[in-house]
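Supplementary Note 3. Input sequence used for the single-chain structure prediction.
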Amino acid sequence: MRLIFFGPPGAGKGTQAQRLIADRGIPQISTGDLLRANRAQKTDLGVQAQKFMDQGLLVPDELVIGMVDARLGESDCDGGYVLDGFPRTVPQAVALDSLLSRRGATIDKVLVLVVPDELIVDRIVGRRSCKNCGAVYHTSFSPPATEGVCDACGDPLSQRMDDTEEKVRVRLNEYAHNTAPVADYYQQRGLVAEVDGVGDIDAIYVRLLGALEG
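The predicted structure, written as discrete structure tokens, is reproduced below.
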């Protein structure tokens, strides 16, 4: 199946996407990963993208689309894939339709993980991590035995700079204005399936599978 997976930051999309691709044996395609790979390999697209990034500019859609197009042409995508983080805007969705049409393919389903904004703020703002060993905690849901100290190695825990409430709300606002309309674009074609992203991780995954096959 050719899938698009949407969800606001902190909705747990990454966790659920990893389970889905493992179960289905299909690749997860992230534009962030594609940019890093193309830059590392110094492909023509990667070199062009680097020039924009060096100037602090966004990479133009045509370059991102070109990377996605090349990735979809690889053999591991023959049986399907999960697009993660793309398309982010309606123009990108239109461009994706165009490149898929050239390949004689279409998107089969668009999964949207739905979580209330206030819960997302609580999830992200409460995150703490250990720079030494990488362990992750949460001040409410999974706190360390000693506040501010990693259970695993004893090093101090810290909060990421972009995990403050102010910055989280900016990211949620960007999602609402730029990415959520993409779901509306696909809704008009009957491709969208919303999944309740609140509760136990396993229960959410069961709901996701039900939406996928429903």
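DSSP finds eight helices and eight strands in the chain. The mean pLDDT is 93.
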